[in-house]
Amino acid sequence: xxxxxxxxxxxxxxxxxxxxxxxxxxxxxxxxxxxxxxxxxxxxxxxxxxxxxxxxxxxxxxxxxxxxxxxxxxxxxxxxxxxxxxxxxxxxxxxxxxxxxxxxxxxxxxxxxxxxxxxxxxxxxxxxxxxxxxxxxxxxxxxxxxxxxxxxxxxxxxxxxxxxxxxxxxxxxxxxxxxxxxxxxxxxxxxxxxxxxxxxxxxxxxxxxxxxxxxxxxxxxxxxxxxxxxxxxxxxxxxxxxxxxxxxxxxxxxxxxxxxxxxxxxxxxxxxxxxxxxxxxxxxxxxxxxxxxxxxxxxxxxxxxxxxxxxxxxxxxxxxxxxxxxxxxxxxxxxxxxxxxxxxxxxxxxxxxxxxxxxxxxxxxxxxxxxxxxxxxxxxxxxxxxxxxxxxxxxxxxxxxxxx
Length: 404
Prior knowledge:
The chain is of the alpha+beta class.
């Protein structure tokens, strides 16, 4: 019974102590609320209420000071004092639950104030960047902040080069033409390719491709000699060339053939001989009549009718290969001489007139032995351009058959 009485006495004293603690805490909270400045807070953003300030009385003070379990004597009530915001070792704040709540409230107010200052400072910086310079107002300010206009790059004016002048207006060209110097006229035109282009483009009206006396004349099944029984004024035998039938050539063609035969011999290709050169209108009548008797209408593929043969111009030569004795026309292509002719004849002003694959244009089966003299300048342009017929070279229609 004694022990039970003592226990009850202790419980009563403990309850009285807790009542005193609660009264002291309530009085301290009222005093703190009365003395704290009134601050209007705007809910701008959420701040975590982690402890910021440290309140304590010793060097090992923590953010959340422990609540003391010691009970003050009922007869000695605790004096009321203002809360301490900064840690001060000399001060000894009241240690109870209310102090922790006050600390968190102060931290929340400080955080909100700091965030508001940062927000206002950022807004001021952005406003300063977007504001127009001093003295710029109204429309000018709007233009200041508008994106710059990208100017279009200037487009250069490219003028098309005018065509070359009319060859017939060039004195050097017309003088050579009047003098009968065909090679000199081609050189005066700027070379073989320039001459060809001018003729094709119609910029050489004084050049007649049907003039049988010119090295550039085109004679085929659509274009006969003019006149029909044309005969060159000067015919000579080529020097240093074996001549099987005693054929002659125009002087310029004869000189060019002599140079080509000599070059082939010096190059080691072997000897070339002249099988047939100039053939008159009358001679061609007999030649074509013989082929027609043997082949009928198929003769037109291997022989020209009178007045349509390039041999009548004195500018064509049928050549054969010789090694002691001479072979026939058909054996030239497979010989070293024939291969050399294909590669080097153009260097001396000659072209192979009727080649394999050009029959739809020329009207004749391939004749590797039939060479046509056009001069060195035109022969170079013909070779360099990879042309296969004079018709195509000068932009003329093909002539596979006779007209009428």
